[in-house]
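Human: Respectfully, please carefully check these tokens:
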Amino acid sequence: MKPLLPCLLLLLAISCFRGPCIDHSLKAKSQDSRAQFLILHFTGGTWEASVKTLTEENVSSHYLVRDSPVKVYQLVDEGQRAYHAGFSSWEGQTQLNAASIGIEIQNLGDTPGPKGIEYHEYPKAQVDAVIALVKDIVARHQIRPDRILGHSDIAPQRKVDPGPTFPWKRLADEGLIPWPKPEAVAQRRQVFEAVPPDVAWFQAKLAKHGFGLAQSGQLDPETRQVLSVFQMKYRPADYTGNPDVETAAILDVLTTPAPQTK
């Protein structure tokens, strides 16, 4: 048997000849994944239209989940930037395309109906596939639960997806995202029914939650829109954008740190 050392030296020489000679034996302790956020969307169109948009136009996403038959497609490698978030922000971080993985869920989205805008349901099998995909991505990239978001969270003035029919509570039940405990919400609601908070309180809490929102102190259209998308996620039965006491209670629970136990 010939010695391996000459062969290894030859391979090293060839690799250095073809490009920079880089030693990979040292690793930095301080590093983590490029993917810090996971953003969920609905496509807002048919399967054919969704595929065309996400593969042929200047919009893209790392994954596309079909409704029927249910199937997960990877359109962009996770190491590459996909163009799914657009102008966006969360907790002061902007341009989230560069720090996120995007999942597009094929769904007709918000369409005009006899009673106004209607949102379409997500089939259970499709939701199951989305949750399995989310779990896999989160485990590999160690994405924080509070950074699993909807497009409406990071761009509330432009987007409403994945909309009020998306089962965020199911993700909470699977341990993927934070969710307000009903008993805590009920307790806070009693407090706010006695003394309702003003608009400035809502704006400050919404900003603390993560939304980019100007602190105008006025119930302006921008504030109503942020309230509406917040309600779509945590109270989808009523998302009119009114700053009511139930919304205040949910918001307060989500933005108040839980007491530390010894």
Notes: Residues 63 and 74 are 4 Å apart (CA to CA). The longest helix spans residues 124-141.
